[in-house]
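From the shared-data thread, chain only:
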Amino acid sequence: MKSISMPRLLRYLSSLALLLGATAPLQAQIDFQRDDAAPGNLRFAWINGSLSAKANTDVRVQVHRYNEHTYILRQNPAVHWEAPFMYLLFGNDRAVLLDAGATAETEYFPLAEVVEAVITRWLSANGKDSLQLLVVPTGDDYSQTQALEQFADRPNTQIIEPTLSSRRSMLGFENWPEENSTLDLGGRMLTLVPTPGLNKNAFSVYDPWSDLLLTGNTLYAGRLVIREFEAYRASLRRLLELKAAQPIAWVMGGRIEMTAHPGMDYRLRANYRPLEHALQLPAASLQEAYQIVQLINAREDIRIHDDFIVMHGVGRGARDYGWPVFIPEQFREVRVR
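Structure, as C-alpha cells:
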C-alpha cells in the first residue's frame, strides 16, 4: 500500500474541509453562559413626543442597543400616547420580540420593518444566515398587541397569541399561574414567570444572561391598576421568590407614565413627556410594591411611591386627592413658598 506524504495529506484534508464548508457552513455559536451579568448601556434619552403630535418629526420606532444581543424598542409618544416599550432578545437559534405596540397601521408604526432591519444587522454581525422569530405579547393589553398582524406573513416566524390556551400550549405553562416556564432561544434560556393581576394573562421574563427582569405592564414606572387583587399579590410574591434566587440588575417595564419628579405622573393621553422617569427600576422596587399591596389589603385605595402609583378599585385616570397615600420621603417635609 502506497504511503501518503504529510504535506499531501494536509492538502487533502484542507480541500475536504472547504468542500464540506461549501455545502454546510459552520455558523458561530454564541456562549450565553456567564458568571456575571452581561453589561448594558442605559445612558441615553428616549424620544418624548411633542406638543403637536402632527408636527412631530422623530422616528416612529426608536431602537436602542442595550448590548450586542439585547435591543429595546419604543413607540413614539406622538404616534400613540401609551408609548409602549418592546424588547428584542437574540439567541443562537431564535429571537423573541416581547410585545407589539399600540398601533396596527404600518404607515404610522412600522414595527415589523424596523425589527427586520435589526435582525438583518444582527445576523450579519454574528455570522449567521437566519433564525426563527417569536413574537410574544407579555399580556393582552392593546398597548402590547396591536402590531401582531404585521408579522403574519413573515417567513420563519411564530406569533404566540395572548390567550391562556396559547400560553399553556406554546410556552409550556402547564400549571398556570403557580409554576414558571422556560424559553430556549438557543443557549439563552429565559425564565417565564406568570404575573396576572393587572392583566389576567400577563407574564414576566427573566434573562439570566443580562440579569434583566422584563415585567411588561405588571410593574413599571406608572399607574399600576390592580384588577384582581389576590392574583397580583401572588404575582409579586413569585417575583420576590425569583429575586431571592437570582440576581436582578434592573426591572424593565413596558411603559413610563411617571415624571422625573418623585411621585408625580403625567396625565392620561399625554403625547408630550419632557423630563420623563427612567425606564429601569431597581430590584428593590419589587419588595416596595409588595409592601404597598399589603397596605392596601384589597381596599379601594391609591398609594403613591416615588417611582409608581398603585391603584385598586378605581379607574386608571383617578387622582389621589382625598385618598390615603404611601408618602414619598420627599413629600414628608413641610413646604412653604
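Residues 331-337 have pLDDT under 50 and may be disordered.
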